[in-house]
Amino acid sequence: MKMLIFRGDHVMITTKKYVTGPLQVNTTLVYNDRTVLVIDPGADIVPHIKKLSLFASFYVLLTHGHIDHLAGVPSILDSYPSARIVINSKDLPLVQTIDHQARYLGFLPVPGFTPEILIQNDGKINAGDIEVTCLEIGGHTAGSTVFIIDDVIYSGDTLFNYAVGRTDLMGSTTHQELIDNIKNKLMVFPDETRVIPGHGPATTIGFERRENLYVGSRDNS
Question: pLDDT category, 125, cuts 50, 70, 90?
Fold first, then answer.
């Protein structure tokens, strides 16, 4: 998927989505001439970056610390050593247990790395010249974070098309916390807001508000 985001008469950023890794993670490149953001590299994404001839400041945004969403980080750091890794501080313990996660899920070993930018709660960060809104949506993991860039929500494993994230995995908190956070922080966005989840098809807030049995109008809780 390739999409041009316009503001006024000027092209601001371009996005390209790839499905990566054995668990088919949605990995997205968001870039302009000066900055490249890589959201959730589930496997080696460097060949795609090089094919686009992107030479800029690199940031890797991790929605959470599960290995299927960060297995491609070491290859990015090998090719772009100045790339800055961004994750919520509450998920740092998960990053530090990559070896255990790899053995548990049958992944190949992933070299360790140290995130440089640690998100604390909700707020905004400037990744190069691209502003990113960060919303902490605890549940799937304690530090699961949704990234919002130019009115597109990158929801990681919190909100999916027709579904929500699991809360029985390493680093999870509670299902109720996840549901409450989604309702209070994501369902308040306009219907037309696009959502790119960590796996599966894209959706919109309006669709999930109507059809999602966990957090939408059909929710019977």
Answer: very high
Asked which of 49-53, 88-92, 179-183 is least confident by mean pLDDT, the reply is 49-53
Domain assignment present for 218: no
Whole-structure pTM value: 0.92
CATH of residue 175: 3.60.15.10
Q: Would you say residue 42 has pLDDT above 70?
A: yes
Token output for 27: 């990995």
Count structural domains, the chain: 1
152 lies in a domain? Answer: yes
Query: What is the rounded distance in angstroms from the CA atom of residue 45 to the CA atom of residue 27?
Result: 8
Task: Please report the sign of the dihedral spanned by the C-alpha atoms of residue 185, residue 115, residue 66, residue 93.
Answer: negative
**At 9, which helix (H) or strand (E)?**
none
CA distances from 109 to 14, 67, 102, 183, 217 (A): 32, 10, 6, 37, 43
In the prediction, which pLDDT does 208 show?
Answer: 98
Which range (55-64, 105-114, 196-205) has the least confidence? 105-114
DSSP character string of 12-71: EEEEEEEEETTTTEEEEEEE-SSEEEEE---S--HHHHHHTT--SEEEEE-SS--GGGTT
* Helices (runs of H) and strands (runs of E) counted in the chain: 6, 15
Burial, 52: exposed, middle or buried (Cβ in 10 Å; 0-12, 13-18, 19+)? middle
- Provide DSSP, 73-106: HHHHHHH-TT-EEEEEGGGHHHHTTHHHHHHHHT
Q: 182: closest CA among 157, 159, 160, 203?
A: 159
